[in-house]
Amino acid sequence: MNVRLIAGYLGGRIIDAPGRRSTHAMSERIRNAMFNSIGDEIRGARVLDAFAGSGSVGFEALSRGASEVVFIEKDRIAAKIIANNAKVLDVDKNTTVVKTTVNNWLDTTTTDDFDIIFADPPYHDPQLSTATKLMGLLKPTALMVLSHPGRGEVSPRTGVVVVDNRSYGSANLTYFRRER
């Protein structure tokens, strides 16, 4: 399976993606709408791509000017494909690929300085409590975008507010911002 990067300096490039049911690539339409809504906030950002799957969201962030992306993916094959894509795109110096579950990584990480977090957990297992934990890694005024099924709102943790909700068919994006 292949995924096309949409815009930025890598726009039009094709990356490999796992052709498995355990991962799903966010559609071009949703990725484009999401990044257009973020605008220039991506430039120079330190980004976390949690539940990375194909890595398309993180690579799109790099293409649009993010300085660094940390990919968290539990699937061994998907993590290997992400690492290989980083080399092929010549962005491996700006990426870190961690092969573990997001929850396990959260239990061991000491970092809390992300400018933007993208969380796209599997729709059959949305792991909303893990998504709420991720909010603790945001810098003050930083942004998190959560992709989830259904229209229900996800409760943010203390000090984080919902700033936007958008629906694209069965996919929903909720935007959270950490307060100062």
Which short descriptors sum up this protein?
Rossmann fold; 31% strand; 180 residues; alpha/beta
Compact description:
The protein contains five helices and nine strands, in the order E-E-H-E-H-E-H-E-H-E-H-E-E-E. With 180 residues, it is of the alpha/beta class. Strand 4 (68-72), helix 3 (76-88) and strand 5 form a beta-alpha-beta unit.
Present the secondary structure layout.
Elements: E1 2-4, E2 14-16, H1 28-38, E3 46-50, H2 56-63, E4 68-72, H3 76-88, E5 95-98, H4 102-108, E6 114-119, H5 128-134, E7 138-149, E8 160-168, E9 171-178
Parallel strand pairs: 3-4, 3-6, 4-5, 6-7
Antiparallel strand pairs: 1-2, 7-9, 8-9
Written account of the structure:
By secondary structure, the protein is α/β, with parallel strands linked by helices. The chain has one domain: Vaccinia Virus protein VP39 (Rossmann fold, 3-Layer(aba) Sandwich). 26% of the residues lie in helices and 31% in strands. The chain has a seven-stranded mixed β-sheet with strand order 5-4-3-6-7-9-8, covered by helices on one side. Strand 8 and strand 9 form a beta hairpin. It is globular, with a radius of gyration of 15 Å.
